[in-house]
Amino acid sequence: MRSWPDLYLPPITAHYPQLTLFSTYSKKLLPVNQEGPIDIYVCGITPYDSTHCGHAATYITFDLIHRYLKSAGATVNFIENITDIDDPLLERAARDNQDWHELAESQIDLFRSDMTALHVLPPTSYIGAIESMSEVFKQISVFQKANLTYEIAGDLYLSIAECPGALENLPLSLEESLRIFKERGGDPDRVGKKHPLDTLLWLKGRANEPAWESPFGPGRPGWHIECAAIAIKYASGNGKSTLTIQGGGSDLIFPHHYMSGVQGRTLVNREFAEIYSHTGMIGLDGEKMSKSKGNLVFVSKLLADGVDPVVIRIGLMQDRYRNDRMWSGAGLAEAEKKVMRIRSALSREEVAPTNPLIDEIIAALSNDLDTPKVFEIVERWCFDTESGQSGGSSGEIARAFDALLGLTF
Ligand code: ZN
Predict the structure, then answer these.
(1) For residue 325, what is the enclosing H or E element?
(2) What distances in angstroms separate CA 229 from CA 129, 197, 359, 408, one per listed residue?
(3) 368 domain-assigned
(4) Structure pTM?
(5) How many Å apart are CA 12 and CA 273, to the nearest integer?
(6) Structural domain that includes position 57
(7) What CATH number has the domain bearing residue 249?
(8) Strand partners of residue 246
(9) How close is the Cα of 252 to the center of ligand 1, in Å?
(10) How many domains are contained in the chain?
(11) In this structure, is residue 104 part of a structural domain?
């Protein structure tokens, strides 16, 4: 799948401490292993309502990781998928009486232009589910050969109780797992299932729905196997695990990332990811942002209203990435104020020393992307510059803002 234009990353020579990130399932801060290529897999959009602020916050977070590691001299293999066939896409197309394929194409185009506007580095591999059918077939066949699958009315399931460690390591109680599994596309109550948490590998073609020919009959893949198959195919295969980092929004912690992790581990007999990293949800003015409430804030709408992309980026970076947080007029005004102040400082003939500032920004980022700390440090530098301190280079710090934070002023 075509991604979006690459960006020049100005080289910033400095000391880069090892990046540490909070890993969701182990609940620990873990160092990112930088030996050999770093494989990052971020779950992409289902293209029916891109790109709202929640999406943007997630991709900006993983962009900061991408930028940090590349600036530190690491080789990053960044994989992102697009779930270009799934129930929500078909449901939205049917609701709006639109061709599902056209809907997907238009939303993927919009996503590319939003990512370009927000200065998100493009992935190394940008992969659609439809173009990955042969990989999905290959991996489902591995499960079949190991006798881990069974059928209900032509739909193919994975027997989770037979996948090593799958039921023993659930991140939630079984009761809670079942509730969330059902809420997020699972079918725990289906008659004939061996275990309610068994996941769908292949859905037999339904009338009036798109279907692909496969060794299991015409149909379409389940969601979790898509990501497992794409990750296995496109990861460098260098590390102890298939992936160095598996990332996405916190709504993917269960079942999606847990189940694709179980599948990936069972398929290739090694850990799926060293670190599972998740971003908090973005609400609006004190309420949860959701499709059902109709209160999603779209990046394209903000841009059309004349909001500067650098303001949107700071608006989504000024709080900690892991926290659920709000998008609000006050937050936007705060981000605008920061941009004005930094622009004003950068335009002065003399600026406060910049070398220690760059080191402090890098140190804050290395500590689980502490962006609130980054802005605290930058505001202090603005104050020092406004107070007449000198000895820094505005060009040097502008390049560091660009390379490390994706901010151009
Ligand atoms: Zn995924």
Answers:
(1) strand 325-327
(2) 10, 20, 39, 37
(3) no
(4) 0.97
(5) 29
(6) 21-288
(7) 3.40.50.620
(8) 41, 276
(9) 8
(10) 1
(11) yes
Do strands 219-221 and 199-204 pair parallel, antiparallel, or not at all (unpaired)?
antiparallel
Among candidate residues 230, 244, 236, the one with its CA nearest the CA of residue 274 = 244
Q: Is residue 404 in a domain? A: no
Residues 6 or more apart whose Cβ sits within 8 Å of residue 306: none
Rounded distance from Cα 247 to ligand 1 centre (Å): 9
CA of 375 to the centre of ligand 1 (A): 31
The tokens for 194 are 């061996």
Cα–Cα distance for residue pair 387/409, rounded to 1 Å: 21
CA of 340 to the centre of ligand 1 (A): 38
Ligand 1 mean position, distance from CA 238 (Å): 21
Q: What tokens does 395 get?
A: 């060009």
Dihedral sign for Cα 145, 150, 154, 155, please: negative
Per-residue model confidence as pLDDT tens digits over 4-49: 999 999 999 999 999 999 999 999 999 999 888 999 999 999 999 8
Q: Report yes or no on 117 lying in a domain.
A: yes
Residue 189 alpha carbon to ligand 1 centre in Å: 23
The conformation of residue 188, written as its DSSP 8-state character, comes to T
Give tens-digit pLDDT for 176-206: 999 999 999 899 999 999 999 999 999 999 9
